[in-house]
Amino acid sequence: QLQLVESGGDLVQPGGSLKLSCAASAFTLDSYTIGWFRQAPGKEREGVSCISPTDGRTYHTDSVKGRFTISRDNAKNTVYLQMNSLKPEDTAIYYCAAGRRYVDDARCWVVDGAYDYWGQGTQVTVSS
């Protein structure tokens, strides 16, 4: 059974950093586009970052550009989201997702329809 498990969420002060992990079981991530999404209380889920399977090309939404970095370690079958300079508005449940529908596109996409497998999420709270 294909499974994604997120970890690394925590309570952190504004300006702090966290590194989220997305580990896969029963499949290898290196052939999938991996996306990170987040959902804050009372808001719709939004795409944050993604990484392509072939050339490792990345995309970050404007609100996190320059602060968040997505990366992958194929040997560990894990994708990471390094989050720096965290703000209270980054508070949300963070989900990783995997998909293969658009792996041949020139870029990856942070839209729900591009992904088939989802993790259960990890809570990130940014507060003083």
Number of helices, where a helix is a run of at least 4 consecutive DSSP H or I residues: 0
- Inertia-based shape: globular
Number of strands: 11
- The percent range for strand residues is over 45%
Please summarize the sheet with the most strands: 7 strands, mixed
Mean pLDDT rating: 95
What low-confidence regions span 5 or more consecutive residues with pLDDT below 50?
Answer: none
Question: What is the first-to-last residue Cα distance?
Answer: 40 Å
Rg over C-alpha atoms, rounded to the nearest angstrom: 14 Å
Give me the strand/helix succession: EEEEEEEEEEE
Structural class of the helices, strands and pairings? mainly beta
* Share of residues in helices: under 10%
In terms of topology, how is this protein built?
Layout: E1 3-7, E2 11-12, E3 18-25, E4 33-39, E5 46-51, E6 58-60, E7 68-73, E8 78-83, E9 92-99, E10 117-118, E11 122-126
Parallel strand pairs: 2-11
Antiparallel strand pairs: 1-3, 3-8, 4-5, 4-9, 5-6, 7-8, 9-10, 9-11
